[in-house]
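Can't paste images in this forum, so I'm doing it all in text. The chain is below; anyone willing to post the predicted structure tokens underneath?
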Amino acid sequence: MWIKQEKVRVKSSNRKEKYVKSGPKAKSCLLRTVPVASWLPRYSFKQDALGDLISGISVGIMQLPQGMAYALLASVPPVFGLYSSFYPVLIYFIFGTSKHISIGTYAVMSVMIGGVTERIAPDSNFMIWDNVTNSSIIDTVARDAERVRAAAAVTFMSGLFQILLGVVQFGFVVTYLSEPLVRGYTTGAAIHVIVSQLKYTFGISPLRYSGPLSLIYTVLEVCHLLPKTNIGTLVVSIVSIVGLILAKELNTYLSKKLPVPIPVELIAIIIATVISWQVNLEMKYGVDVVGEIPSGLQPPVVPAVSLFSQVIGDAFALSVVGYGIAISLGRIFALKYGYKVDSNQELIALGLSNSIGGIFQCFAISCSMSRSLVQESSGGKTQVAGALSAVVILFITLWIGRLFEELPKAVLAAIILVNLHGMMKQFLDIPALWRSNKIDMVTTFLLTVVLNPDLGLAASIAFSMLTVIFRTQLPKYSLLGQVEDTDIYKPVEEYDQVRQVPGILIFRSSATLYFANAEMYQEALGAKVRTHTHTHTHTHTHTHTHTHTHTHTHTDNIPRLTADTIHLATFSLQLTSLLQTLFLTL
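Text version of the structure:
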């Protein structure tokens, strides 16, 4: 009996030891998975609260017009842009690791969502007969409901992809998205954004095209419909665009004198709404307005599983693009302020933001550079600023959202077009990128413009991988010589003022040596050695002939090749291929 009690005590003590040992591990795992639990208890109200408060209000004010505007890109009612600026922001506040990026709606993501919603729920599927006008009209209520279902489904699925990639530690994948590829893709996507807003700018209703060359067909359709332009809408668009550009230039000029930027977009939608309500732009001039904005939040809805098979490719593209943009911007701020952004945790945070957001009928989000810069420059120190911006959106959605029902959609389109100036400035980087990696950027840009953004991304990544393969299969081989009186070595075929070290052949390959190109490397090295030996033999024989009476060749005095010095910086760690190649060559 006593022995049994002792055994029970031993087992009990062992369990306690296991719990004690596993406790710190569980806590560490919890803090990694839920980062807010590690930094929020140490939050300094004295140092950070005021800056986060000002920053949160400023970003929240920006989220209002941008959320409504980018909802137009996603082809869903504007109020769903407000939902997408609320739920995902709160989720990222809990799970994100970047202190400065502003999560919410983003132009490229929105236009990709718009391609999905308009493909699944085109206008032609919702035509009904109107007995009053004796003509066919679009049942916008049913169409918008189906488009919201499609947007929520693809958003939910993209979130699942991001969570899965984060769990399997796949955050490194973004390193394979080169800067020229990202710039070419975002610039090409910006062209799609511009074309998608032309219908709101001119007040026309072009047909919806999908698939490759859809952008070209849309531009041709818009040109065909230009004679039917709504003059009232065009005037509103021009005035809004000019006013926003001038106001943003004034903002830039006064940026050093003002603590926070002037909320020009908020001022624009307030003025436009008041004028539209006073003049009755919709009834008198046929200007399309936002329409009904329901107050309150949407209840959670199970995503449409039946649509998953139709949007799986789009969902994966959204997950990659959204993560690539967020982690790139997050690393910039992390480097500037000296903290670390966990790439895998960012995948999980964005995935939870999108998947939970999809349940609440949001569309896919990422981070916006303009909002992130405002969040940083206005004093934001932590993601408390992001949470406060979500509170601002919640207040607007619950109590004052309905005041913007008379807002012309042309004003929202103007906000989108003016906000694209950052992406359009990337055209100025073409000369620099052209010198370093022109093929990737130009090809990615053209593929994105000619194809849809989702197909363009897939084709661009495939092309980028092919170029890597071709570069390893078609490298440049050269013999190096020393520039006189320096430690610099240059190719002897390209520079006359270099000399080869006697008895040593320095051979360089522009590509990494691995099993796939080892044989070509061997052949190239052998060819260079033979050419080098033949050249020196010929030179020595020619000199000897003119110096002596006999003409037979002497090679005994030729500098003998005693070593191969290889530029190891171009090699990978595949030493087997390296050693085998050198053995066969030498």
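The chain has 23 helices and nine strands. The chain has two domains: 49-129+143-469, 476-542+554-585.
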